[in-house]
Amino acid sequence: MKIQILLVVISFILLSCNNTRKDLLPNVSGKPGEIVVIIEKNTWTMAPGEELKKILTAFQPALPQDEPMFKLYQVEPANFSDLFQSNRNILYVKKGKTSDSTSIKIKYDVWAKPQSYLEISAPTDLELATLIKNNKETILDFFISNERKRMQNTYNTFKEKELNNKLLKHHVNLSFPKGYKLDVDTAGFVWITSETPTTSQGIFIYEYNYRDTNTFTSNYILEKRDSVLKMFVPGPLTGSYMTTEHDYTPYTNEISLNGKYAFELRSLWKIKNDFMGGPFISLSIVDEKRNKVITVEGYVYAPKYDKLEYVRQIEAILYTLEIE
After folding, report:
1. Residue 214: what pLDDT?
2. Which of 254, 250, 284 is nearest to 269 (CA)?
3. Is residue 268 within 8 Å of 248, Cβ to Cβ?
4. Phi, psi angles (nearest 5°) of residue 92
5. Of 77, 84, 176, 213, which shows the fewest CB atoms inside 10 Å?
6. Which helix H or strand E contains 108, and what residues bound it?
7. Rounded to the nearest 10 degrees, how much is the dihedral formed by the CA atoms of 304, 305, 311, 316?
8. Which of 236, 239, 235, 224 is nearest to 189 (CA)?
9. What is the rounded distance in angstroms from the CA atom of residue 321 to the CA atom of residue 172?
C-alpha cells in the first residue's frame, strides 16, 4: 500500500513538473506559414533539401495567384541558437555522425509553445532524400494541421458565443472568432461575414436533400452552389450575383472531419456581371438524422493582398464543423 501511494505521489510530481515546465515556456515566434529548417548547407542544396522544397513550397491549390504553402528559412545546425529555437515550426534534418538510424520523430513545445517540431534522420543524403520523398504527405500534413490547430485554439479562446448559439437551429456547430457577424439567417441558408476596409471573409451554410453517394462530385456540388448563391448572394450591381469560375478546374478531396465523411472542394468564385472574385473552400457532409447534405463554405476577397493566410483562417473555422 505504501508503495502504491509512493508511486502515485511520484507520478503527480512528474506531471506537475511537466506542466510547470510547459507553463514557463515562451510563446512561439515567427509568422504563420514559416518553417525554420535546421540542415547543413550542402544537404540543403542537394537531394534532401530539394525534396523538402518540392513538398513544402509547392503552390497552394485553388488560389488566383501562385503562393507557396510555406516559407522556409535554412539554418546551419551550428547556428541554431535561442533566436531560432522559439519559432512556431521547426524541421530538423540530421545526417551522418548525428544520426545512425533512419527515422521521423514528432514533438511538441520543445523550446516554446505551441510549437511543432519534426525531426528527420538518416545516415546519408540518399537515405534522407528517400525518407523525405516516401513521407511527403506526413511531413506536409503535420505542419498544415498544426497551423490550423493554433488558429482554432485562438478562435475557441475568443469565440463569438452568441453567434454559435444562433447556428444550433441549423443543426451545425462552428467556432467563430470575434469579429464575425450574422448577415443573413433564413430557412436553409446562413451568411456570416467579417469585414475590413480592404478585405472580406464570409461563411455560407446551406442544405439540400441527400440523394446518394453520387452527390459528392464536383459537378453536383457546384451545381447546387451556383443555384443557392444566385438566390441569396447578390453582387454590388443590379443583376449581379456570386457564382463559380467554371474555367478553373476545382480541387477536391475526401476527408474525415470529426469522425464523419466530408467532401472538400476548393475553387475560385466570381461575381456575374462584375469584376470581383477570389478563392473559396467548401465542406459538404451528410446529416444522417434528417437525410440532408449540409455545406459550409468560406470565401475570401482581398484584392490587394496574398490570399493564402486568409484562406487558412477560413479553413480553420470550417474544420470545426460538427452536425448537431
Report:
1. 86
2. 250
3. yes
4. -105, 120
5. 213
6. strand 103-108
7. -120
8. 224
9. 7
Contact 171, 324 (CB under 8 A): yes
Mean pLDDT for 101-122 is: 96
Overall average pLDDT of the 232-243 stretch: 95
Our measurement of the distance from residue 123's CA atom to the centroid of its chain's CA atoms, rounded to an integer in Å, reads 33
Residue count of the chain: 324
Query: Would you state the pLDDT for residue 251?
Result: 97
Q: How many helices (H) and strands (E) does the chain have?
A: 9, 15
CA distance 59 to 143: 15
Unique residue bearing C-alpha cell 530539394: 50
For 158, phi then psi, to 5°, come to -115, 55
Region 196-225 average pLDDT: 94
Q: Is 274 exposed, middle or buried (0-12, 13-18, 19+ CB in 10 A)?
A: middle
Cβ atoms of residues 119 and 94 within 8 Å: yes
Residue 304: enclosing H or E segment and its boundaries?
Answer: none
Q: What are the residues whose beta carbons fall under 8 Å from the beta carbon of 34, sequence distance 6 or more?
A: 70, 71, 73, 87, 88, 89
Could you give the C-alpha distances from 288 to 209, 228, 271, in angstroms and in order? Answer: 11, 21, 33
Residue 199 φ then ψ, to 5°: -140, 160
Percent of residues, the chain, with pLDDT higher than 70: 92
Q: Tell me which of 2-11, 203-212, 225-234, 277-286 is least confident.
A: 2-11
Q: Residue 164: what pLDDT?
A: 86
| Residue 277: other Cβ atoms inside 10 A | 17
CA 299 to the chain's CA centroid: 14
Checking if the pLDDT of 127 tops 60, the result is yes
Per-residue pLDDT, 5: 46
What are the tens digits of pLDDT across the range 26-39?
Answer: 999 999 999 999 99
Alpha-carbon distance of 203 to 188, in angstroms, equals 14
Give the residue among 194, 166, 189 at the shortest CA–CA distance from 178: 194
> Contact, 38 vs 77, CB < 8 A?
yes
Least Cα distance to 221 among 240, 241, 202, 204 occurs for: 204
